[in-house]
Amino acid sequence: MGFLNKLAILGCCVGALGCSEKPDGVEQIFFGGDILTMQGDSPQYVKALAINNGKITHLGELDEALAMAGTNTIKTDLKGQTLMPSFIDAHGHFMSSLEMVKQVNLANPPVGSVSKIPHIINKLKAYQEQHQVPKGGWILGWGYDKDGLDEQRDITKLDLDPHFPDHKVMIIHVSMHGAVLNSQALKWANITANTPTPQGSVLARLPNSQEPAGLIMEGAYLPVYLKRPMPNEKEMLNIIEQAQRMYSSEGYTHAQDGFTSIKNMNFLKKAAAQNKLTLDVVSLPGFNQFKEWINNPDYPFGEYNQGLKFQGIKITQDGSPQAKTAHVSEPYLTGGLHGEKDWQGETALPKEHFIDLVKKATHSGLQLFIHANGDATIDQAITAVRAAGIKEKDDKRSVIIHSQFQRPDHLDDYKELGISPSYFSNHAFFWGDVHAKNIGWEKASFISPIKAAKQKGLVYSNHTDFNVTPLDPFFVMWTAMKRETRAGKILGPDQTVDAYTALQGLTTGPAWQVFEEHRKGMLKEGLLADLVILSANPLKTPVDDIRNIEVQNTIKEGISIYQAP
Description:
By secondary structure, the chain is an alpha/beta fold.
């Protein structure tokens, strides 16, 4: 958090923490509830915590903390609530939260209310009427997933065009790796019957025709994604506080933008310069613009500047497992998206180009963040890291994001090469049944194998990929602990974990992955006072009740940035 921004917040403090002049002792003391430190591999508690100048200055007994108090020290009785380190977004798309403000929620339950194609039409029409979108204007939706539709098919331009003949419509796929466009939007994107399908992409066609049907994914979507309609800079600067509140209301003090364009890198720099970042924001610039930002002094890596840090390169090497664009070593049991036999998905880059890019990034001193969902893509990522000469002892902390269709043999390679997985256990609920159908129950049961990874001694994290799934950290905990699908089946019961292990994936693990274990992720003297107060202790709550825990207060460097109503 920038210094001026911190002063601004101090000038209008909120909540039970109150405001005061600078105390002559420690600024705040917390006591009267479970204070969970997240130090070590088993739960550790203290009776009191004291903070000063944005950092933790004492953990221990209450009388010791009280001896450090001054006349203006704020003493907060937790009254049985739980204090612990705030949550860290291990992988998500912070910039998407700014766009969501002007988009329609088209997600399936429980995230949204769409279960039929007519629901999509009605929601888009309601938005157009409510906001009086003029002819030629844009109507955008997010969270679209055909697997949750009764029709069990993708919506097409033929569904959309009769209702929106004069508007451009873009419905962003839940994976954020694609979208459905109506005819006006396809025309804007210059996608026609003559447009070839890029390698590793989907460009759906109407039956018995080369006419685009509307769905585009992966490489076919990337040019559209880069020039997609967005709020202008002034609008984004005005709504960035609202976007950050989405995170702080869920207990996060640290957000990640997991594939940042040059345009958004510049926006984040401006937001930081204007002291608009109340969270720490870690940005992963996208590989597709590598030549534009590498070795550019405008984009220093590995250091915070008023709440913003450029961390490493994001390479997206395959697609979405539920959309069957993830690259797998054995064909999908259900064929390709359009009935292709022996369909195995494809990679974004040819293997040789991918390996070369990993080498160049490594030799430039960049930390690697590789999106790999399919087991064949994970094989390529392992090969590329090994070819770059990286070993565990080098402490490069290469992160393979998602690692979804992982095989048990991959874990030994991860250990040898110092690769850290960032898992996505929410998939078990949202698409576990789909994965079982597409690749078989046995393989699907090993998605996000947190338990196996921990047994191998790997540091791991667990993420939401927001806005692919909700930010809710307690839902993430529940999916890691229960692994229950929408159909009520337990997907890989041998990979269910305890609550403490689940919490490590939201705190200490993601802090370590971005080289911040000496700054955040646990309660320890000298670390930032990034804290969250919860209505109940997750470690003492039955698994099926964990989703009911509520964030009461989120504290960034000693300052309350969210308090529950």
